[in-house]
Amino acid sequence: MAILDRFRTQARHKHPDAAVRLAFVQELPLDERELLVEIAREDADPRVRRAAVAKLLDPAALAGVAKDDADEQVRTQAVSMLRDIALEAFEGVAEPDSHAAVDALADTKTLIAIAKNATRESTALRAAARVTDVHALGSIARHAEHEPVRLQAFEALHDHGELLKTALNSEFRDPTLAAVERITDRGELDQIASRAKNKSAAKRARAILREIEERETAERDARHAAEAAAAAEAAAAVAAEAETAARAAERERAEADAEARRVQDAEEAERRAAQDAAAARLRAEQDAAEQARAEAAAEAARQEQERRHARLAELSTAAAAALAVEDPAAARRQFAPIRKEWSALSAAGEIDPAVAAQYAETEQAFAARDAAAREADERARREALARLQQFASRIEATATRTDLTLKAGERAIKELRTTLGSIPQLPSKKDYEEIVKRLKAAQTALTPKVQELRDIADWQRWANVGIQEQLCEKMEALKALDDPETIAKQVRELQAQWRQAADVPRAQGEVLWKRFKAAHDEAWAKCEAHFAEQAVARNDNLARKVALCERAEALADSTNWIKTADEIKALQNEWKTIGPVTRGQEKAVWERFRAACDRFFTRRHADLAERKKVWGENLTKKEALITRAEALQDSTDWDTAAAEIKRLQGEWKNIGPVKKSRSEALWQRFRGACDHFFSRYSQRHDIAKGERAAAREAIVAELEALAPSAPSQEAGLGVPEAADAQTPVETLPPAEPPADLVAKVRSIRGRWQSELAARGVDRDRAAELDARFAAAFARVVSAYPTAFAGTDLDPEANRKRMESIVQRMEDLAKSLAGPTTAAGDAAISPTTRLAAMLKEALAANTIGGRVDDDSRFRAANEDVRQAQASWSRIGPVPDDTRRALADRFQRAIRRISDATARGSAAAVTSARPR
């Protein structure tokens, strides 16, 4: 009986099978709030309640579930839904619902999240108002989306540390500036001025620091001014005493003169008093008569004023009584004539200030209450209209649904009737007429559809009778079968078909149900033994799976990641080969096995993440070393670069591993850079030679670029191979020299001389470059002779300077050698020798004495030094000419040197005592 009782016609949310109820809840629309509330509160299965809570948008019901439900997951789901409603994660959430959701929440973290991120400002303010934790308020003040929320949280913030954090870390201008204003410590202001994220806060902190400094400066200036003023006051006091004494003497003299004038004035006053007395008596009589008339008029006005004041006081009291009336409409009717009479009386004259103030306060309070009542009434009317329009839209959508059910249609008809019978006051008559028209139109459209559904339902119930009869026949035919599996399969199929055709007339349904149940029991008896065997097999499978769970749990805390992962994967493959287990145990044993596997793989994933983090850090370090090594691989600062690369190699060894797929590539890059450098380092001398040769090559190429090509080559004609070498080549007339040609050539020659001073170029290569440089220089000079004429680069001028120096040195050498040595002793006559001696004596101004040989030799050596210096400064000269002149210059220098050496020796010999 218990098995087949499940097939009776009943509501799906009351079905004994939790899976059926869960599927029903998942199909329910969100607007079925009452049914969702009922399921969320009363269903026995936590999964069903949780599914209902996930579709429930009623904050009050969710609050009750979050507070009272026995299942923690259901309570958590309810809190999550309240949070989502407050954050308006669903479309169409009204402001009262979001406020109610905030009021229902108690978790501080959730309230903080709502205060920071809620779309609606009023919701965020409501959530922030419920937060009292100091740190939470500071976080809201720094990070909330809405400015009023940030200001509200900041106003409730009194912790100095949170104020400082807000000033330093908030990116919003409003709370940051407010926090800066409440900080007075100079060190903290300095910190804000240098570290605040918000530029306005930093700027304001600097301004406050300037104000503090200006205030301190002003206080110091005030103190100094006060001290100066005190000194001035002391000096002024001394002067005042002297002035007071002088004024006292002057006052005594003035008093004596005044006494004499008073006696004279008294006599004159007595005469005038007698005359005035007579006139005064006449005026007094006239004034008495006028005063009597004025007093009578004033008495009448006073009495009228008293009556007006009394009535105004009564009106003020009546206004206070009207204010006490609770019904706004009645109070409005009672207050209107009071206001009118008060306006007329108050315009007639002055009013008692106390009464006027009392009435003004009452009128102001009444106006505020009346405005609030009118606004509340208008708001209520607008809200009622919005609810009716929303209801009308929902009913219209229901009327147009193609999948409308009879239950939904009947419920919609019932709601329509109820709503049409109790329509509240709306903003206008037009709104009332339009909404009534819409509701009646929807009712007109929905009524025939519901009637049609009722007819279909009646026909379906009648048709289900035939279906159930066929199902009874099929169930009775199962008696002839012997295979338990086939019987069980067909029984289940017939049961499913019976559920679909369960709605039949009550009288016929009971008979058919008994027939179907009897055939079912008879067929099911053949399956019980088979199911018993299945139960044993399922129990064995359950035991095997429990054993796998235990093995997985034993491996869940292992740190041998690779081996354990393989073992757990093998357990998972074995799990797939095991058949089904005892009904009701499938989920529990699977969740146990999966939890053990998940625990291991979660730990493995966390460990892998940590290792990846370390690998990433090591990767960054190694890439930095590679970048540095690659920057040094082409360096020519050999010793410094070699030491730095060796240091990088040592640092590389100290860095931990990286991801295996990246390790080899990184190592090859680093080793390649190091090998490249040290390969160059072993060949550094050859590289240096090549660089110096390249530098000379560049200088030569630069000079050759200034030299014009041969005319025949420029014209593309070429020189005939059979031409006679002695035949002169026709040249073009000289062209205009380039701009700054001499300066460029002088700079090139200076750099060439510097390069020649640096050794390390192969002799053959150096000779080749020297020849190229000389040829290029000769072409430049010969092409533009006028540009170089007269400069230090003019070869002809330089040749003449060389010849002049050589001739001067040769003449000096002859003069030092003497006529005997110069022409030979045999060829010189005695007369000539005597003339030479006289000439030398005259030159030394020592006629009759010995020539000062030391002075001559010193002068000769000085001339040689000057000549050598001038020689070294002479510019370029053709090589043949330079070599010939250089040979003559060196021979002359050697002759002078020999002559000075012999002369010095002779002078020493003659100076010895004989």
What's this, in brief?
The chain has 914 residues and is an all-alpha fold.
As a percent range, the share of helical residues equals: over 70%
How many extended strands?
A: 0
Oligomer: single chain
SSE class: mainly alpha
From the alpha carbons, calculate the radius of gyration and give it in angstroms: 62 Å
Number of domains: 5
Mean pLDDT: 77
Tally of alpha and pi helices: 34
Instruction: Report the sheet-strand fraction.
Output: under 5%
User: Terminal Cα separation, in Å?
Assistant: 167 Å
Globular, elongated, flat, extended or rod-shaped: what is the shape?
Answer: flat
Low-confidence stretches: 1-9, 711-732, 820-828, 844-851
The major beta sheet can be summarized as:
none
Q: How would you characterize this protein structure?
A:
With 914 residues, this protein is mostly helical. The chain folds into five domains: 7-206; 382-473, no CATH class; 527-681, no CATH class; 686-712 and 735-793; 797-910, no CATH class. It has helices at 18-27, 33-42, 46-54, 59-68, 72-86, 95-104, 108-117, 121-129, 134-143, 147-155, 160-169, 173-181, 186-195, 199-324, 328-346, 353-399, 406-421, 429-477, 484-500, 506-525, 528-555, 561-577, 586-632, 638-654, 660-682, 684-706, 711-714, 741-757, 763-783, 785-788, 795-823, 830-843, 853-873, 879-910. Helix 21 (528-555) runs parallel beside helix 23 (586-632), helix 23 packs parallel to helix 25 and helix 26 (684-706) runs antiparallel to helix 28 (741-757). The radius of gyration is 62 Å and the shape is flat. It starts with 17 loop residues before the first helix and ends with a helix. Mean pLDDT is 77; it is low at 1-9, 711-732, 820-828 and 844-851.
